[in-house]
Amino acid sequence: MSRSRSLAIAVLAAVVGVLGFASPAAAHDELIASTPSIGEQLASAPSEVALTFSAEVLTIGAAVIVADGAGRDWVADEPVVTDGVVTVGLQSGMPDAGYEIRWRVVSEDGHPISGLVPFTVGDASPLERTPAATGAATDETGPQAAMQEQGAHEDQGVLRILLIGIGGAIVAVAVFTLIQLLRRKKGTRST
């Protein structure tokens, strides 16, 4: 076998290995629907919110907040996760206002995902997000702090793919070296 053919086989093996492991790691569940839907204007306050995901999500780590402009959380109980749908009941007496569903779940592959779903009750204006004051003291516990950590978890996904690529390159070099050693042994036996 020629040296270039051996190298081509080793590179092909590495590419197959990297693609085989990187593709599942890059695909995460995602929110595909919500009740209320994004930007929906409701005539009256809902009694619950539901978030539907593209696949099953883990029950551990599920967090939902339904906040008004003052930051009050209107969630009445713990989220219930069933067949890729996260449902949570709301307190009664929600006034006409803009609201935001802030959610965080752990996808089937163990990767946390989060997002926002704004909606409005009555003729109120949508909730306007104001930039957080720098240097202000905040409560760093509970679901809100967990949602803010989402950016750090996304960086871990990029690192995982990078490490898989490096691993594939190492496998390619190892296969190439093994082929070269076997060729040399075969060559020394025949002489």
Automatic annotation (TrEMBL):
Domain CopC, residue spans: 28-121
Keywords per UniProt: Copper, Membrane, Metal-binding, Signal, Transmembrane, Transmembrane helix
Signal peptide: 1-27
Region annotated Disordered, chain positions: 126-150
UniProt subcellular location: Cell envelope
Cellular component GO terms held in the UniProt record: cell envelope; periplasmic space; plasma membrane
UniProt keyword annotation of Lipoprotein present: no
Short name of any one Pfam family annotated for the protein: CopC
Keyword Chloroplast: no
Transmembrane region(s): 157-182
InterPro entries, per database record: CopC/D, CopC_dom, Cu-Rt/internalin_Ig-like, Ig_E-set
Gene3D superfamilies for the chain: 2.60.40.1220
A Gene Ontology BP annotation from the UniProt entry: response to copper ion
One MF term in the entry's GO annotations: copper ion binding
Protein name in the entry: CopC domain-containing protein
